[in-house]
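Issue 218. Parser rejects a valid record. Input:
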Amino acid sequence: MIDRRLAIVGAVFVASVVPQPRIEAQSTPGPYARIATLRPHDGDTVDFEAGYLRHLEFHRQAKDSWVWYGWSIWAGERQRWFVYATFGHSAESLDHPVPPGEDERDNVSNVTPHAEFTGNALYEFLPALSRGTGVPTPRAELTTVDVASGSARTFEAAIAAAQSMLQGETLWYRMVAGGPMPRYLRLRPRPSLASVLEGQAEQSLPEKIHSVIVKTTIEILNLRPAMSYGLPAARP
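Output the parser choked on:
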């Protein structure tokens, strides 16, 4: 799933003239995630979803070993935008996606006529700040936090200090490349909307770091199983 917007720094996979080696399975899991967004054209949602499903079929035919999550943004200013993401990668495995040139051609044929690529970034999972494995369960509350330049250590220290008080699965990621930095994402995977709302007590960030936060955005994501690929079995 290659983002055609080549201006996104550090988040582009370039097709070499030499065929890239393939791996059938990711034998060395790691902390890295790729998270990207698509904005379906107004009035074109049905065709976008059909085209995206055709693109997932390309991944099946290419024997892609990665797991891809697909979510629709249900609550937030980006309502109805589409988020797709893959988690738990080593740096080495990120060099071996499905053939980039073929992936791009299939995207151009099936996805780009119906949607705009609006972002594509690499993130590193932060286990010291989190509770969970770094690979989310389906429904999720997504919080994006932009932090003032030079304040990343202060922010991470405060979040880590509160880690022991977390009750539910809470996954923190630091942006490595792909947008304004420093930027952090927090995913709070939950089984239902009710459980998201019941966990509002854990939603707030520590007061002592409010002064270093530039912007915070909270959105709710709905998993789209049919628009995902290779999802693991649901956890009990």
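Fixed in the parser; the record now loads. The CA atoms of residues 80 and 110 lie 19 Å apart.
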